[in-house]
Amino acid sequence: MKPRHVLALALLAAAAGPVAAQSSSRAGQSEFYFAPVFTQGKDLSQEGGTRVSTGTGQGFSLGWAYNFDPRLAAGIDFAWSWVDYRANLAGGAGNVGNVTQISGSVETGTVRFNGTWNFFPGDFTPFVTGGLGWTHVYTNIPTGPPQNLCWFYPWYGTVCNGYVPTANTTKFSYNLGFGVRKDFGPYFLRGIFNEQWWDYGGNAGQEPWQQFRLDFGIKFR
Predict the structure, then answer these.
(1) How far is CA 21 from CA 12, 127, 178, 180, in A?
(2) Is 2.40.160.20 the CATH number for 3-220?
(3) Distance in angstroms (rounded) separating the CA atoms of residues 47 and 209
(4) What is the pLDDT of residues 131-160, one digit of tens each?
C-alpha cells in the first residue's frame, strides 16, 4: 500500500475520535451496499520464469450485512473484476531459452462471507474487516504465441498443444481490509483498502491483490 493511502486513512481515523461517543443508528439493522472496485496493477513472476504485468483493474461489488450492535456486523458480498495483462512467456521442454509476448485479460468473480468490527459506536468510525470465500478465475483467450511449441502460460502452466489455453477454475480465497465509515441517517459511505489472496497453483502459489473500494449503502429493518 502506498504511503499516501495509509496517511489519508490514518487522518480520517483520527478525525473520528471527537464523535466516537455519539450514538449510532446501525444496531439491529440490515444494510445493502454497492461499490466500484479498483485493483492495483502489479508485476508477477510465474511458473517456468514467465513474467506478467497487469494494469489497473475495474469492477464492482454488491453486499448485504447485519449489524448485531454498533460495532459488530457480518454478511455476504459478491464481487466481479476485470484486469488486462501483458506477459513474457518462457519456453518449456524443447523450447527452453525462448521468450514470446502475449496479452489478454483476467476476469474474477468472488463470493465471500465477511465480518466487520467498527472501533467506535458513533456515526464516523474506522473499522477492520475480513472474509472467506471462493474466487472463480477466467483468463479469456489471449493473443497466442507460435503453436506446437511448449510455453509456460500465466495462470495455467505448461502447454505444448497447438491451441491457446484458458484457465477456468474456482479457488478458495480470503481477504483482510480496513477503512473508515460515515453514517448519514439511513445511508452510509465506506472507504476501504482490501487485500485478497487466492491460489494460482504451480510455482506461483498465493499472491495478494490490493483493492480500493468505495461503498454506497442504505440501512433498513
Answers:
(1) 16, 16, 21, 16
(2) yes
(3) 18
(4) 999 999 888 767 767 667 888 888 777 888
